[in-house]
Amino acid sequence: MISKKYSTLFLLAFALPVVAGAQVRGIHLSWNGTSSSTTATTMAITWMSDAKGYETVCYGTDSTKLDKKLIAKEGYSADMKTYLLKATLTRLKPDTCYYYRIGDGRDGSSKIYSFKTAGKTGSNAAFTVGVWSDTQDNKGNLSFEQTDSIVAKLAAYPLHFTLHTGDIVENGSVQRSWNNFFGTAQPLNARFPFMSVTGNHDVINDRQADRFQKPFPVYYDLFNLPNDQLNYSYDYGNTHFVAINSGYAKGAEKDSLVHFKPGSPEYKWLEKDLAKARRSKYIRWIVLYCHYPMYAYGVSQVEQWQQHITPLLDKFEVDLCISGHRHVYERHQAVKAGIPTGIKDRHIYDQPAGTVYITNGSAGGSLQGTGGKDLPTMIFTPSEKIYTYGIMAISPYEIRIDVYEKTGRKIDYFTIRKGKK
Ligand SMILES: [Fe+2]
What we know:
The chain has two domains: 25-116, Purple acid phosphatase-like, N-terminal (Immunoglobulin-like); 127-417, Purple Acid Phosphatase, chain A, domain 2, CATH 3.60.21.10. The chain has eight helices and 24 strands. It has helices spanning 4-13, 38-41, 145-155, 175-189, 217-222, 249-253, 265-279, 303-315; strands spanning 24-30, 43-49, 56-60, 68-71, 73-77, 82-89, 97-102, 113-116, 127-132, 161-164, 194-196, 232-236, 239-244, 285-290, 320-323, 329-332, 335-336, 339-340, 348-350, 356-360, 378-380, 388-395, 398-405, 410-417. A seven-stranded mixed β-sheet has the order 11-10-9-22-23-24-19, with no helix packed on it. Strands 12-13-14-15-20-16-21 form a seven-stranded mixed β-sheet. The chain has a four-stranded antiparallel β-sheet with strand order 1-2-6-5. Helix 3 (145-155) runs parallel beside helix 4 (175-189). The protein is globular, with a radius of gyration of 21 Å. The N and C termini lie far apart (70 Å). Bound molecules: fe (ii) ion. The site of fe (ii) ion (FE2) has 6 residues, from loops.
């Protein structure tokens, strides 16, 4: 006999919007390796299953002949009576399209999805990244209905992966929310690696808790990211991406527990990582992303967070910093040593002397108002409350981001130019 608590969870699990008869759900791609060739030669696949027998990934370069097989590592969530499966495909060919299916083809197997591996490290081929954040299931998005629209918009682009800057769910301890999120996002995440960072809603934000600012245990069941899954980096072509956990910076500030304090192990890791990337002959751009913004209007500005991180971004000439948390879109001037560097064209950062900062935190969570325009760094923020997503195109001499509201209307765009004009 199962307890009342477990029986409730059990019923909720089966109330999820799954295709009739399907056993496999919540499929999402990611990278989890730490070598420079990770994105070119590997792909991690994570999924859930209501029944045993769906642990096989069938894959290949011909959609009619999935002639390779890999058996996933399988776990089990007693709370949800759900199997949790993880597989990592290795020795893939760079810049190659692969097809895969979860399950051996029996009823309940997934449909066939495809993904493309990255070019070799240092490749200057252009690529496209979806940028989204704060999909949390709170008021107005209780069933991820706003997020569902954003997913559909993003999935229409020829992306190579997506960056999600945290607050994926409203409460990281509620597995039903994770189930619903990964169900909603599957049309996107099963095709493009989902490279997310944790937000304050995804981690334990009780300052009295032993694991304050660490994820709930379920996070480790559901994600398969590099390093410790909280602070990690990877190369894609000529760009180095760094994802860092900003924890619950606002609450942590009161006790001086804000992450990346100079001298801390995480600070040393970041310093070493950025230094290596900036030294590399293969890396042209560095993009860092995190949940709490470095520059923000209002209460989302956490001085200690800015003070800890921005000197490293200055030192290693990080080109772009993308954040979420505040459910608005804000774009700032390039900044160095706390000083805005100025801009001649409001849409073009031409050979900027500092890091460009944006916040793009409204892919579903309840809209919180508008950004303030009186910040010295601010270039643009919408005057209305809107849900947004971004499309980032990276080419050898330019990073371009186009930002859209949920309807598909473009609200902003900008380019960062470096090198050849
Ligand atoms: Fe947040």
